[in-house]
Design a protein that fits this description.
CATH architecture: 3-Layer(aba) Sandwich
Number of strands: 5
Structural class: alpha/beta
Number of helices: 4
Shape: globular
Radius of gyration: 13 Å
CATH class: Alpha Beta
Strand order of the largest sheet: 2-1-3-4-5
Oligomer: single chain
Strand content: 25-35%
């Protein structure tokens, strides 16, 4: 069995397209999904908050128990948990990618944008 990990928004509109994209593009069977409202904002702030610590703990579980070698983080159109313009979300996404890359140098960290038609695009 093969796994990847995704840090996705809790917005249900993003779940299916992101999981299908990751299964296809990363050639994995399963996607361990960590959800938060506006996760790119949370990780871009890089604070030692309960939310941040919870996300990191769940990444560790996915990597440790399921052998996940890739972690994706998702930003998306019309995010209620992070209601800022796309440009700002993409800046946050880049910051989150860099921060996670520093925390998990042995993992492939990728950023995804989900647009208004729920199409997934890889950012890096």
């Amino acid at each position: 069995m093969s796994f990847c990990t995704v840090i996705n928004c809790m917005d249900g509109r993003t779940q299916l397209p992101v999981n299908e994209y990751l299964r296809r593009e990363l050639d994995v069977q399963f996607v361990d999904t960590i959800t938060e409202a506006g996760p790119v904002r949370i990780l871009a702030e890089q604070q030692k908050s309960q939310e941040t610590q919870s996300i990191l703990k769940r990444i560790d579980i996915s990597a440790g128990k399921h052998g996940s070698k890739s972690v994706a983080i998702v930003a998306h159109h019309d995010c209620a948990g992070n209601p800022v313009e796309k440009a700002e979300q993409l800046e946050q996404l880049e910051s989150a990618i860099q921060w996670l890359s520093d925390k998990y140098p042995d993992k492939q960290i990728i950023g995804l944008w989900v647009d208004s038609s729920w199409t997934v695009t890889r950012i890096n």
